[in-house]
Amino acid sequence: MAIERELKLALPGDLPDQRADALIAHLDQLPGAQARGERHLVNRYFDTATLALARAKAALRLRYVARDGHAGQWLQTLKSVGEARDGLHVRHEWEQPVKGEALDLPQLIAACDVPATADILRREGASVVAQFETNFVRRLWRYVAGDGTVVEIAFDRGEVAVEADGRRHTEPLLEVELELLDAPDGDRAGQGERMLHALAEDLRRVLPELHGDDLSKAQRGYRLRQRVLGD
């Protein structure tokens, strides 16, 4: 099991391209940051018809990652109960490669070491179906601070989508994610989280529109689904 610790910053969906490009240019020149290219991510989120996983504060995702010059990879991910405050998300995460465009729930259940979350998958896994998608292009940087703290910076541009009655309903998705990958002494002193907030302040000087967002991409999808389907 991994503990995911990331600071999520949202932007208005109608942000002009030149404003987004200014942020990219800043990150390309940021001391300590190394550009890692782009990925195209197609993400399907699964739940039961009664949204049993959402009620249990769990998210189940199948993701396809494609990048130029490399074969695409399917990954399945389970995220469980966590907390979000001022854009900082802390939660359990299990992620595994899968052979194709299908979930392998027995493998995920075996890896999940939070009993309540594993039990949900055992009980409800046979009934899950795709509920919505988040599809976006992710631009990546790896940032290493002077004290050795390592942060992955991701700039995501795309959409959240729900299929209903033969129509595709979408809303824009525009976010920056700052994920803590490594910190001295396991971040017991909290320096890693302080670094996330310091980076966020640096980015806000370029784009004041950036603001902490406690909604995950999965929660955005469920919100759009409710708006479209009314349930």
Q: Terminal Cα separation, in Å?
A: 33 Å
CATH-level-2 architecture = Beta Barrel
Strand content: over 45%
Radius of gyration over all CA atoms, rounded = 18 Å
- Placed side by side, the strands forming the largest sheet appear as 1-5-4-3-2-6-7-8
Which fold name is given in CATH as the topology? Hypothetical Protein Pfu-838710-001
Inertia-based shape: globular
- Taken together, the total number of domains comes to 1
Largest sheet: 8 strands, antiparallel, barrel
Mean pLDDT: 91
Number of helices: 6
Q: Provide the CATH top-level class.
A: Mainly Beta
CATH superfamily descriptor = Hypothetical Protein Pfu-838710-001
Structural class: alpha+beta
Structural notes for this entry:
Residues 2-228 form the CYTH domain. The protein is of the alpha+beta class and 231 residues long. It has a single domain, classed as Hypothetical Protein Pfu-838710-001. The chain contains six helices and nine strands, in the order E-H-E-H-E-E-E-H-H-E-E-E-H-E-H. The chain has an eight-stranded antiparallel beta barrel, surrounded by four helices. Strand 6 and strand 7 (150-164) form a beta hairpin. The longest helix has 16 residues, at 191-206. 29% of the residues are buried. The model has no long low-confidence stretch (mean pLDDT 91).
